[in-house]
Every structure is written in structure tokens, then in C-alpha cells.
Amino acid sequence: MSSTSLPSTSSPDPEATLQSTTGESDFQESVDFYRSSAVLAYPEHDGKVSDKAARDLLAFFRHGREMGKRVENAGLLPVSLYEYVNASARRGPYPLCIGEEADDIPTPLTSIIDRLIGTDAQSDGDQERVRLLLRMDAEIRQQFADHAELPLSKLWDLATEVVAPPADDATSSSTRQTLTEARSRLAVDGKLVGLSHESLVHLVATINGRMWLQRFSEAQREAENLALQINDLLEVDFGASEESRTPDHLEASVGKTFASELDFEALSGIMSESGRHHQMPERRRRRLESIREDLDILRKELLAAGTDRILEGSAGLESAADTVRQDMETMARLSKAAQVARLEIAGRYREEDHDSFFDGFGVENLTDEELEMCPPCLIDAGSTFDLSASSRSLLMDLLASRMPVKVVVQVNEPVSGSTGLFVDGIPSAAAQTAWQATALGSAYVFQSPASEAESIGRSALSGAEHLGPSLWSVYAGAESTIVPLDDYLRSAIALESRAFPVFEFNPGGRDWAERFSVDRNPHPEDPWGCADLEVDRDGELVPLKVPFSFADFLFCDSRCNDLFRWVGPEMWHESMTPVDEYLQSDKSEEPALVPFLWAADEDGYLRRVVPSRKVVRTMRFALERWHTLQELGGVNSSLAARVLEESRERFEQEKQEAIAEIESRYNAELQKTTGELARGIVANIAAGLLGLQAAGPQPAGLSGEVLPTSGPSVKEPSGPAAPAEPSPVGESETLGDTASEGDDAVETISLDEPYIETVRCTTCNECTNINSRLFAYDENQQAFIKDATAGTFRELVMAAEKCPVRIIHPGKPLNPDEPDLDDLIERARPFL
Amino acid sequence: MFGLNTSLAIDIEEPQYNLTDYQSAVPRWCPGCGDNAILTAVQRLCRDEQLPPEKTVFVSGIGCSSRFPHHMGTYGFHGLHGRALPIAQGVKIRRPDLNVFVNMGDGDCCSIGTAHWIHAIRYNMNLVVLVHDNEIYGMTKKQASPTSPKGLKTSTTPRGSYLEPLNILSTTLGVGNVSFVANAVEWIPDVLYQIIHAAFHHRGFSFVRIAQRCPHFMPNFFDCLITDPKKILLLNHENGIRVNGKLGETYSNSMEHDPSDINRAREIAAVSDVEPVGILYRNDSRQCYEDLRRPRKSVSVGMRKEAIDREFDKFAVNVLT
After folding, report:
1. Count of domains forming chain B
2. Of A188, A371, A418, A744, which cross-links A559 as Cys (Cβ 3.0–4.6 Å)?
3. Is there a domain that residue B313 lies in?
4. Which ipTM score applies to this complex?
């Protein structure tokens, strides 16, 4: 079966194994690791079929009249499944390694091993290595069955001891070296989970816990740090207490080494008398002790809630809202403790201001960022069929809220009832949980059969990243099957047949295309999965393309046995049509046709199974639902097709209109030009006949411009150019001059007045010591001239000379009668 | 973190400190002393950062510069010669919540305090260390210090100093675990402020060497740098300091220097024809010693008592049963 999600099987032939494993190793693309040894074959028959057979077939299909053979105990199964059932070794995606880091993507063991194998295994040595790694794959699965609690690396070590036990020979050493090297390249490490509901819940819980822990870790560190700092304050306070100065305490603090050399009684006396020892008020100490305790305990409470808590069943759904509310209250208390701690550490807590505020501090005071740090509330709701209508309603209420509830539900029946489902083919209410949640618009929703390990792993990450509610609706497979099928196949057939397709709704997407996706279904553009088989017909292998439709899915369910009959080749009348062709064509309108499914018996002989009409009706309904999903996911969208068609029509219409307009314009131009040309020719002839020269140039073409009809009357005005406009340059120069004058005026600084380059002042006090009314400091403690008239020119000159950074400029003397002015002016000259 | 901002959570007026809140006794340095400029720059920093005076400590050793704590309106510790750093480290390890500054002279730091200096760099505790380097012992009347230039005549070297001076910057940059080294001159107050500001915001041992004039014993010593702005080489960088405007025009000799490049920093520290001013090196990823040694569990006095009582109870006989 090509490109399906059914587990690959392999023949014992190692060549076949190697060919299949050397490709790119995504599980969904790895094919045919094992193949059943039995070959499918057409049964022998002479080809003669009576018309009575046709009538009997039709009677069963249309009216349920008995004919053919019942399918129970016949050992039949859909032919597409034949090569996978009973295969002794299969590499399915489980177990799944969930990793250890927050951003590790859960990865199937198969993918991990395939990546180690790589794509370039061509040489014999490479093939030897591939065989070795495949043996490791099988052995790790075996070890996992016995030691599910161990991480992959430990399982690898155990498997290595089995696959390559220690020995002294060179081969063993080389093998172990190869395995050691491969171990170092494991893409991911951590615990493995198998396929079960408990494992799924564990996976979702682990990843949600990890992602939340990542969000919370910084707050947690800060809470720890704040608690330590508060503790420091309390210890310092204790150091100021009488108790800290008791001889016993002093002796204990010194230690034994020098205890005998000190008189602690005396020391205690000295310390008690020395200085003043202030302890903080009792009220403050109690507050500090309280927030230290809160920072420690509340943090741990949140940690436990975020990583270890799983609510279960209806009771879990009922208590979820209260649990989230409690978490928020815990977060509010922690936030309050942290804020008080910060204020206390900064010494800025003022009881008169802060007490009343913090007394009323609650959930409503939390910031968005803090609300996002509230731990997720994980709910294992169990099977949707076990939930009452009121519980399902409660579930929808939770999913419609903004609370961080993370719900896992298990679906056992994709369609309603057991045998009654065919009456109208309505999907079960329980199975529609994911649909309904998607319609709410606020919750992350993921629906998938349990077989889709990698998709579930990725969705666990996406759902955990979404801060609001999330829902995982997982189909585990029906209990009753026509032949024994393992857990994996029971869920995988729901995917191929589209009975329970994968879809994801992530409200965090920017648009619908980002929010909703069906891409993780195999061949999402097709109505269902399809197998390309080879069947033995008279000793020759011939191809056979077989769909795995919704009818095949129902055929696998033993509760539907009454709705199918199988017939041997003696009844293979030409009126029989494969059910997919019957459904997709107009053949269903032909009353004589009878649809059938391909099945195979235990020996590999093909059989035809005729479904009842109810099956086909249900199948049609399932297909419509799948088409709806496809369209929502942007596959085969009718809206897009309609828009495309409309656009095409509009484009075609516009094109035709444009062509028509061009044609019309061309024709008009042609007519006009032809007329003008004719008139020109006539005029020229007339002028020639009258002996006059045409003034214009000879017509050179169809251009109207060169035609002589313009004549002198339309000659371009000539003569001297219009008088030049007044030159703007002169104006701008004038303006420029004006502007520059203005700038100069602004820039002009009078050197007559004293000034200080304040920004360079070093606060050396030289000038202020000379005259503090003349010189003063600004708000940055740098000097400026406060009042030039408050001192003499001499003081200004002295200050300039003393200033170590030479930033005082005395200017010119204000008082012309000041003594020794000439000398001072001379001394001031270097500082101008 | 917590998205918590106390000013957002509570609408009250925070106390506002101004420059005078950080001023104490009138400085008793000589008029014209460069220490005044350093004091002003530090007081401006305290005001701009609104450091609570009761949460701020200045620790010093011995020397003119070591009078610094007396002139700050904060807590202070005027220590022993060369021992400012171990005292400051003690304060910091016990009270990591305090803002701890250290003021030392060149003699204090680079002579008697050398061992502490080197190891303090290695410990990388969150301190702002200001070395007032006037290249002379001023307080004790002009003896040669480790940074005195060769040939300088002093009372201990009347025929001129025989040795090349110690390069403080190169030495600091040579110690493993160094995390912040800057060079400043006190006569460009704006740049000095920028550098001290950056040092304060660096978490780790922020070492700032400041060329400082001693007008009494080294008059005109720095004149060649003061009068010729070309002799000052400003180190500009987005992770360092930026000098623009008129000051940038005055001190136009500048270069781009990435403070994360320690090799280039060492080259710059070794130049002798110009005075590099700016942040030579910073590495914000170095872990502080107090963080490494911080106890991971908070143990209160009460908890200790409980633990001891539990131990004692193991040896006690309950007479009531």
C-alpha cells in the first residue's frame, strides 16, 4: 500500500527491508518493511455467471433478501489489510519518544532509527550497519515491553547487550563501536510511550507540564531569589537581637577551634554595651516571615499543580473550573508576596500606603502575563460515551472559556450506535466533540485516531503552547472486529477510510488557512486511502487498485455482519461495480448495478463482498462530511473554485471588451486618417493644378501632424522668446543673504560678558571659594556665572587663572573705574 | 519578572532624592582637587538612579581619595590602607541587596592593596570600584606611587623615579575573569559620568581607573592632556559611551571600540602617546561570586532551631511515656 499510514510490513528478505529503509525515514513515507509471504490471487473459475446471480445480488442490495454467504467466521478481511494482518514483525510508529527538553518534538522510534540509517546506505558495509540498526529497533521494542519506565538511551544500552554482547573478537568490538556511535547521534532521548489511552494522557500531561514550566521558570527563580533576600533581611535583624549576643550563640558562631581562647561572657557583655542595636518592628518581622513562607510554599503548590495533577472523568470536568480558580488565587497570593518582597527589599514598603492595597489584592489584580503563568488543568475525561449529556455540556462550557484547561477525550465509536448507525448515518454526538469545540472558536482542537503518533506528539506541543483551553479527541478503535486486529490497526483503519480523519484547529493562527488544517491525513485531496496491489491471475501478477473506503471500515466491524454478504466467482456478474466507482459516478442511478468490496480469505483468494444499501447510504454521508472537512482545510474548496471560475469569466469578459475597444478605436482612427489623407491628396492636386507650392512637407505617412492641412495658419508662434521671468536666483540670494544674516544674528555671542563652559566644570570649588555670589553651582553641581555684577573684574580674572580646566571666560570689565584695569585686561586676554 | 512593577501596582508617590541628599560634610580636599569632580559625578549617579541612601555604601582605604565616604550622605566605611576591597566584598556577600562602591587611590589599590585588587577582579563581585589615580601619594606629602612616571622627583625618589609606572589597565585586563574595565579623566565630567553610570549598571566587578589631578603636589602634571584635546582618545561604541555635540567637537580624536573585544582592549590599554577614555572591556556574562555562593535554600533561625531540637530529641528520653 503506497503512502498510507497503515504500518508497513516486510518480507523476510533483507534486500526488501534495506530498500525500504534507506529512503527518507518519515514513518508515513517508509513503505513495505515486511510483506506477507502469501500472494493474493484470483480464484479459479470458468467465467460463466448466470443471470439469476445478478437478480439475487440486486435483491440483497436493494431489499436485504438472503443470498450469498454470511461474512462471520469466513476469515475475510478487506483486501488492503491482508498484507498487514498476521505479519510477525512490523515497524509501526509506536513507541513514541517524548524527549526531555521543553521544545523536543515527540518522535516515533521508527523515525529515530530511520534517521540513524540515513539515505545513503549503498555499500555492503552500510547495509550491514542498516541490518544492525534494524535489529536494535526490534530489540528496543522488546526491551520497552519489559522496562517501560526507562529512557531511550537506557533501552538502547540494554538492547546493545543483547544485539552485540561483549566479546573479545574484532567483529564484536566493531559492532559495539558502531552502536556507540549511533547512540551518540540519537535525535532525541527520554521516556517512550506506547499506544494506549493512559500513554496518551501521560504524553499530553508531560508536554503541557514542560511547556508551562518553561513559562513559569523565571517567576519561580525570582520567587526563590526573593525568598532568599527576605531571609537575609530577617537574619540581619536576628543579628541585632539580644539572642544573637548571648554567650552561647556567640560560642556556636565561632566554632570549636578557637572557642577555648575566647571569653564569650565578656564578649557578650561588650557587644551588648557597644552601640545601639535596632531591631525591626514586630509587625514588619511577622510580615517578612509570612511572605517568605508564601514565596516558598505557593511556588511549590503551583509547581505540583502544573506538573503532577490530572483530573479524571465527569468529576474532573465538574471540578475543573474551581481548580483553575484556586490556581489563580494561589498565583495572586504569590504575586502579592513577590510585590511585597520587592518593596521590602528596596526598603520602600510603607504600611500606611501599602497595607490597605495588599489587603485587597486578588485575582483581579493579576496581569495578563501572570494569568498566563497559571498552571494548566489537565483533564482525562475518559471515553466520550461514558460522559453524560450534562458533562458534555460542561466540557463545552470549559472549552468556550479562556481557562487553561487541557482535556483529553477518547472516542470509541465514530458513528452512532452499533447496528442502528446505518439508519441515517449520523455521526455520534460523542464523536462530534471535536467538531463542536471547533465551532466555539476559542479552544485548540485536535482530532486523530490513536495510530497517528507523530501528529499527536506535535499537537501536544501546539495545544500546550495555546494558553487557553485545548482538546484532544482521539479515536482508540472499536472493540469488535471481523478478524482479530491489534490496537494500532483498529484505529488506523479509521484514518484511511476517513471515518475519523485528522484535523487541527489552532485559534492562534492569523487567518483561517493557518487555523484549520487537514494536511496530516494521508492524501488529503482524495476521498479515501487507496492500495496498489498485485494479484496472481493464472500465474501472472496483474495490478489491482483497491480503495479503503468507509464501507471497508464498517466491514471490519463484526457488529455490521448482517449488512454484508460475500460471493465467490460463480456469482461475479458483470453488473457488479466496485463500490467507490458506484458511489462517485452516475452508476448509482442505474438500477441494475450492484456495488461490491474486494476482500481476501485466509489463503489470499479474492472475494467480493456485497454491502446492503444502507451501507452505501452511510458511506455517502461520510464522504460528504469528509468533503466538508476538506473544504474547511482548503482542499478542493468549492468557494475557491467558484471564485476562480468567476475570475476567469470576468477576465475573459474584460479581455473581449478590451479587444472590442481596441478594434473600435483602430477603426475610427483608420477612417479619420484615411479621410484626412484623401483631403490632403486632393488639396495637393488642386494646388499643383493652380501652380502653387504646398507650404508643408510632403506627406510621409499617416501621421496627421505632418499633413499640409495645418498650413501657415497653424504655424508655431516664432520670434524672440518670452521675456525671462525675474531671476529667482537673485531673490534666493537676497533671501539667503537675509537668512545668513539672521543666522549670524542668532549665532552671535557677545564676548563682552563673562561666561563659564559649565558642562566641563569639575566642581573643584576654586571659583566658588573666591566669590560664591558671583559663581554658583547648578543642579548638577557644576559652576555658572550666577550674577556678573556681584563681583569685580579682578575676581573674574583670578578665577579664570585658578580654574584647572580653563573654562572661565572673564569677558570685558563692567566697571570702567575699577583699579588696575589695564593690567587685568591684559591678564584676561588668554581666556577670551 | 512577574510583570510586576511596583509603581504600576500601587499609585503612590515614590520618595525623590536630590543631590543634596547625597552630600555630607564639605569636602576637605584642596581647592582644585580632581576628587571633587569624581564626587560630583558619583552624587549625580546616585540622584539619577534614585539610590536609597540607606541602601548605598561607600568603602575606602587610606589616602586623599579615601575620604570619599565622609562626603557622601550614605553609609560608608573608611577602612585600612589597601583593605577597601576585602571590606567591600564582606559587605556585599552579607548584604547583596546593597549598592556597594569602593574608592581607592593609586597607592591604596596598586601598592599595599595589590593582592586584594587582583583577587577581587577574579572573584567578580558586583561592586563599582573607582581608582583615583593622581600618580602620587598626596596625603603623605608626595612620595612616589606605583603609577608615578619614570623620572618623577618625589620625597622618596629625590633623583627621580627609577621604574616605569605600573599600567593599571593592562594589569586588570590581564586577570582571568575580568568583567569590566574603563578609563576616565575627571576633567571631562560628562564622560566621567557616563562611564560611572555604565559601571554601575554592569553586574560584576566594574573597575574604573580615573586620571585625577593633584593641584598641590603634581601641579600642571596633566596640563598636556587638558590643554590639548587631541591627546584624549575617546572610545565610542553603542555598548560603551557616546560623546556627541560640542563636547564631541572639542574632543574630536575618537575611535569605535567594541568593548567585547578583549584583545583590542589590551592593545588600547598599552598605548602611551594618548589617553584612551571610555569602556575598554565589558563582559556581562561572567557570573558573580555572591551568586555562585548564595545558599540555595533559605534557612531561617527558627528552622535551624527546629532542626537542632529534632536532633536533640533523638537522644532524649520521654519520661511521660
Report:
1. 1
2. A418
3. no
4. 0.76
